[in-house]
Amino acid sequence: MKHTGNEILSPKGKELFYKKASHTAASYLRRLGEIRNTPEELHPFFDVLRQVFVEMKSPYKEADQKTIGTFCAMVPNELIYAAGAYPVRLCSGSFTAYSISDGLAARDSCPLVKAVAGFACSGTMPLYDGCALMVIPVTCDCKKKIAGLLGQGTKTAVMQIPQGKHADGDREMFRKELYRIIPLIEEAAGREITARTLAEAINHVGYAQYEMARFSIFRRNVPPLISGAQVMAVMNAYAYMPVERWADAMHHLNGELERRFQNQEFAAKHNRPRILLTGSPVTFPNMKIPLLIEEMGGSLVADETCLGERAMYDPVSVVDAGLDGMIRAIADRYVKPCTCPVFADNTQRIFRIRQMVREYQVQGVVYHVLRGCLVYDYEYPVLEEELDKLGIPVIRMESDYNEEDVEQLRIRMEAFIEMIKMQEFEKSVLEKKKGGAG
């Protein structure tokens, strides 16, 4: 990828960048690996994150392995696989890349967009340099503007997202948008998308979704069988692994979790508050919120984020096996169930979180807001009101990629976890009294 404008890093600056970025990523991977009762089958996921963020190497080294960069879960991976290329999610959680983006992105841009700008214009991330095309959905104003910046250095395709999802016209608009993007993907990948290749791609992604569904069942166990912070790393690794390889690794992880369930080997104690994480995406290596939840005594048992479980549920449901029928099915799958706040009416997200609170026996919700991420911040009051009706406490945690706010966040997280413990203790005392009276 060509650099936009002047070279923003000197050779010495690049050396320092690599050193700092690699150190930060290695530190988070070490902390994830040191968590009590770490499953052995997590190593393939950790290995790919190490390759990308510590060694700064692309997992797609071969000359014929063309990659197409994406910046949102709404870009259908099935189309990219059907064209013979590999999708890579270029959203970044790197503080090092974020810190060099002054002058590239607006001051109040969200950290994710700033980090993307830093990587794109520094020539330090092979994943960016190697992309034959970047597909950028317009899910916020920052994404719209970053598309212009990225387009100065590599070929980009801007994808329009409907403002609604319930009307037939909204889904038809997205279907037409997919048809507009498909020739660009085919040209970049060098292969035509056919009914056969698209059906194969849908099946491959469906296998990964099947393993993810199995995994979700194990994740609901009380006490938990796996650390939630480690789960967030697993989901981030999906962005950098071929879908079949990720699904196979998940299959082996599910096998280990099944053995742990049978042997009653748990990752945490039964009395830890069960926490749901929602809001802005948790993007590696910025794992401080998931780690803080568990370091302060909570169990992160579920997430409702676009770099977590949301990207994997609801497989493509094909009724018409023709090419157009499958593209219609893909359009429906990426619009109908999506709970992204980009949609004007997002009551479906409230319903989904209420459902997850029940299924995962959630006792508290952490609402993560990346500073400047207005679409997620806007929805917090509505969710807070709905959770209050359920008696579920929620805390809004605003942060960026800087490590300087960790201690402040730690104090607030600890107080939140202790409040839940007290609330649960009072509930148990009340239930005992009722039982004695009966």
Query: Regarding quaternary structure, how should these chains be classified?
Result: single chain
DSSP E strands, number: 8
Strand order of the largest sheet: 2-1-3-4
Strand content: 5-15%
- Tell me the span between the first and last alpha carbons: 72 Å
**Structural shape:** globular
Plain-language structure description:
With 438 residues, the chain is of the alpha/beta class. 53% of the residues lie in helices and 10% in strands. It contains 16 helices and eight strands. The chain is globular and about 75 Å long.
Short description:
This protein is α/β, with parallel strands linked by helices and 438 residues long.
SSE blueprint and pairings:
Elements lengths: L10 H23 L9 H11 L13 E4 L6 H6 L3 E4 L5 H5 L11 H12 L3 H4 L1 E7 L3 H11 L4 E4 L8 H22 L5 H25 L8 H10 L5 H21 L10 E6 L8 H8 L3 E6 L18 H13 L11 H13 L4 E7 L3 H17 L3 E6 L6 H32 L1
Parallel strand pairs: 1-2, 1-3, 3-4, 5-6, 5-7, 7-8
Helix pairs in contact: 1-2, 2-10, 5-7, 8-13, 9-11, 12-16
Summary keywords:
438 residues, alpha/beta, four-stranded parallel sheet, 16 helices, globular, disordered N terminus
